[in-house]
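Field: sequence (string)
Field: structure_tokens (string)

Example rows 1 and 2, in order.
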Amino acid sequence: MDEKQKHLLAIDDEPVILDAIKKIGAAEGWRVDTAADATSGLHLVQKHVFDLCLCDIKLPDLDGFGFLDELRRMNVDLAVIMTTGYATVENAVQSLELGAIDYLPKPFTVDEVLSALYRGFRYVELISKLRSAKPGLDSMIVPCPIQYRRLGYGSWCFIENDGSVKIGVSDLFLKIVDPIRALRLQPVESEITQGFSCAEVEADDELVHPVMAPISGQIISVNQKLEQDPSLTEKDPYFEGWLYTIIPKNLNYELKYLTACNQAYGS
């Protein structure tokens, strides 16, 4: 983003979390407004222009889904990162389908909050550039192939003819966390679960960004080429740079939370 001060809205009914977000934001030079419920948050949205919102799904009045609905009704274009307990990650996955850009499972560390917020601010910047249709943007982000499906903007999957599923990371996600220092993968036979981290990308700024699994299942192969050349994920994210092949567990059920890759980011 440009040099103007970033403006964050944090909505949570736990004062300790709001205090922590305010301290983190102050340390990063961001302006942070807070609200203890969705109604108060919506009043702030009417008075200020925010770059990003961090919102808990479980709130005392409207829940996070209701907050997203109200933003749509008000025709407010605000990027929202949801927070949720680990036991309700499925709700967070559902929130991506309903308009949230990302989610952050609780409890979270300072580093996890920072990585999520930096991704969020960078997402807003890149989507703004894409919408502006400036010359050269066609080559800035490699589009996800139309036969693929994606979880939010971060990970994708492709169903093979034999029923196995190939999984990888989107080019937009890679551009957001760029430059990349390391890629951490799980071994063969590991079980991965939709909405939980299945790999980690470490950026040059030392922030670690989780890659959320788009589909649950058991890993049956890992892309061995990435061991010799991790940058292959950036060079060719949808073909040679795939991460895993898995045997899915709940494919038909979980597909409903994924977005077809012919749908534009931020639409």
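Row 2 begins here:
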Amino acid sequence: MMRSKLFSKNLVKAALPLFSLLLLLTLSGCQESFEPTFKGEDIPYHVKQICKEEYGLDVLARMTDTTIWIYIPLQKILHKEYGVTEGKVLDEEMTDKLRNILTTVGRVLLSADKAPEFFALWSSDINIGLDYIIMGNVMDIKKSYGGDMPSTELNKRYVMKFGLNTQAIKDASGSHLKFYNITLPDFLTQQMVQRLTVKLQAEELKNNFKIEKIDGIFNDGAFILEYSAKSLEPAKPFDIMKEFLNIVNYCVKAYDFRDFSRVEINDLLTGDRMILDKATLYSRPLPAY
């Protein structure tokens, strides 16, 4: 059984384009030269200090073995016209705050002698109880900064989650947060799911399907992915399973991830299933994305 998704499906669909813009703008503000000046164990302290001194933002920063977690409680995440005016999703003031925090995180991680593998920025609307989480791979940031990855690709590699959570109400201290070690296979699984979601919501496809579910889990060395999407335009066929496979193929090779045994993709609507072992997947040509 698949784990339930943290985010609201409709909200994610609406926010993904703005999410990419937010990260693109954030990256453009992090183009100065950095030398290792911070100790890895001091990363949380420096993130908090810079956010406070330069932007007047009070954040909580905690480190696990693989991940730096940053939390900021907010009065509002959604735009006041969300649900009323098309394209109005994220509150502008909130967007500015997250951009400044992400810029700070990039500065500190690029200046640290030993950075964690991942970062996660967790913001909560403490009035209505809404969590908004952005997760990223630190090596992706370093590659982009070094000119080895375009910013457009970096944006696709961030993972975003939305979710209603009553425990977030009035939680200025972050007591409802669950800090854990983000791992590469789980991160890749979530990125795969998000990439397919974005693909099916692209302008040329968004009216072709009614999406009921896109989900995935990494379990016992296997990527297990599933989807349920009803075709609304039979005259415009699109092979979702093939697209999902191409995404998996691209992601595992982009990160040179080999610590898995197989990939399983399930169409919940038709009952169709595709299973490939690692050797077969790696023998396939690399798709262009």
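free_text_note (row 2): The two ends are 30 Å apart (CA to CA).
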